[in-house]
Design a protein that fits this description.
Blueprint: H1 2-52, E1 56-76, E2 84-102, H2 103-113, E3 126-138, H3 142-154, E4 161-171, E5 176-186, E6 195-205
Helix pairs in contact: 1-3
Length: 216
């Protein structure tokens, strides 16, 4: 009787063991998948940030400047104007100039770019106001190759996890760089034999500092 009871336990134990192994395999596969997705996300973000740092920031400003001068005017001293004198009449004008250049150059030297300073006596001009019109970024041709190269340098393909498509896209209109990668990831345990194809995107915006202009 005891021999029969011992024999009846074996199939149940094997079944429980199989269930435990399947659950353990599913857990390992899930953690493996999540790890690779998280790793790809981080590397794609890092690659996008590297590309975003190549941005060239440009600015456009509107400068108002003022100039004055004196004009000699002949004035009659007597009624018949036999005696005259010279009077200096004051005249002035204002002008608006739009300046477009790299942001760093605007910050460093905008009065000279607008051809004005602190002296308004002709032929000089005095800056009276300056305001930002807009700021934007432009990306050099090397941005795409740089971002993609950063991803390749930091990702290591494996037999169970590899990338099949990689593309970096600078978006100057939005001031950011996107890095899109398609991954093919397979089960690490092989118990189920699944294979996932996933597309992940990393994005990074180029930093634009607020533009403050101080009159000379």
């Amino acid at each position: 009787m005891r021999d029969k009871e011992r024999g009846s336990v074996s199939p149940v134990f094997i079944l429980i063991l199989m269930v435990v192994m399947l659950l353990l395999g599913a857990f390992l596969d899930r953690e493996w998948l999540n790890y690779k997705i998280h790793l790809a996300d981080n590397i794609a973000d890092f690659a996008a940030e590297s590309g975003a740092r190549t941005a060239e920031v440009w600015a456009e400003i509107r400068v108002t400047k003022y100039q004055y001068w004196f004009v000699p005017v002949t004035v009659c001293v007597d009624e018949k104007c036999t005696v005259t004198s010279i009077r200096m009449d004051f005249q002035s004008t204002t002008e608006t100039k739009v300046v477009t250049d790299k942001d760093a150059e605007i910050r460093r030297n905008w009065p000279a770019l607008a051809e004005c300073g602190s002296n308004a006596e002709a032929p000089n001009w005095k800056c009276t106001s300056a305001e930002k019109v807009r700021q934007w970024v432009e990306y050099p041709a090397s941005t795409k190759d740089l971002a993609e190269g950063v991803f390749r340098a930091n990702w290591r393909d494996q037999s169970l996890a590899r990338w099949t498509h990689l593309e970096a896209t600078p978006r100057a209109d939005r001031g950011l760089v996107d890095v899109e990668v398609t991954l093919e990831i397979r089960s690490v345990t092989g118990l189920v034999g699944w294979r996932h194809t996933l597309t992940r995107t990393g994005s990074a915006a180029s930093r634009i500092e607020p533009l403050e202009l101080t009159l000379p």
